[in-house]
């Protein structure tokens, strides 16, 4: 007798793997932890193999689980393409998008509102992180569309902007520049330090944080200077020769190749939002 694997259970299985826990998976597939736990038990019983090992609080795939994961992703991708083909723009699975923090603060609300207006039944997975992390998630098929930062001239760029210094002018006049930066890896951090070192300006890292909100508070509180683009709005910009010149940065939009028409529509919607932002400058 042929063994039929339920698509919804496979979707939960992938969510557990990608999220690293039942709790995070429950947020992705909109099921309770006990329900997902029962699904995983059912999947192991159907396949007659153990899929997970527990290492502390983490769930780690067994060798058999790794093999199942590869085929589960293929089955879900095929399922979603079939549904998209038959239903047009109907979203068969969750829309998985990633933003760097700068765009999450300025564009995310509008993009999500428009997407839900076009597709009221859409299920959204939104990841906010650094560009290298988002690219890894895109390339490993865990995100569909990402909007991040890249070097000037990046082939995926939809807009290029100059980096600027932000903070209070009195700090720029100090002999040792107090610098507020995001944790590595960060393109802006690297650019600020490189510019100061090339200009022979001594500096001190006074704030180092993973949070853009904390960085903003440090600048507003006159604790340190930082460099961002104009997306870092509402803060005093330092102009003139007080600080060394900075390079430009690209706003980079990437997507997976094979996507449902509705997710391609989301990609185009984000691109238009970024272009509209440029027109309003």
Q: How would you describe this structure to a colleague?
A:
The protein has 281 residues and is of the alpha/beta class. It has helices spanning 7-19, 22-29, 33-47, 63-87, 101-106, 108-118, 131-139, 169-172, 187-199, 212-220, 261-279, and strands spanning 52-55, 58-61, 95-99, 124-128, 145-151, 157-162, 164-166, 177-182, 203-209, 226-228, 248-255. The chain folds into 3 domains: 1-87, Arc Repressor Mutant, subunit A (Orthogonal Bundle); 92-162 and 248-281, 3-Layer(aba) Sandwich (D-Maltodextrin-Binding Protein, domain 2); 164-246, D-Maltodextrin-Binding Protein, domain 2. The chain has 11 helices and 11 strands. The strands form 4 sheets. The chain has a 5-stranded mixed sheet with strand order 4-3-5-11-6. Strands 1-2 form a two-stranded antiparallel sheet. A hairpin with a 2-residue loop joins strand 1 (52-55) and strand 2 (58-61). Helix 1 packs across helix 4. The longest helix has 25 residues, at 63-87. The N and C termini lie far apart (64 Å).
Order of H and E elements: HHHEEHEHHEHEEEHEHEHEEH
Give me the Rg, rounded.
22 Å
Q: What's the CATH first level of the largest domain? A: Alpha Beta
Average pLDDT: 83
Compute the number of strand runs. 11
Helix content: 40-55%
Structural shape? elongated
Helix/sheet category: alpha/beta
CATH topology of the largest domain: D-Maltodextrin-Binding Protein, domain 2
- Strand order, main sheet: write it out: 4-3-5-11-6
- Count the helices. How many? 11
Q: Architecture of the largest domain, CATH level 2?
A: 3-Layer(aba) Sandwich
Instruction: Report the span from N to C terminus.
Output: 64 Å
- Count of separate structural domains: 3
CATH superfamily of the largest domain: Periplasmic binding protein-like II
Q: Give the low-pLDDT segments.
A: none
> How would a crystallographer describe the biggest sheet?
5 strands, mixed
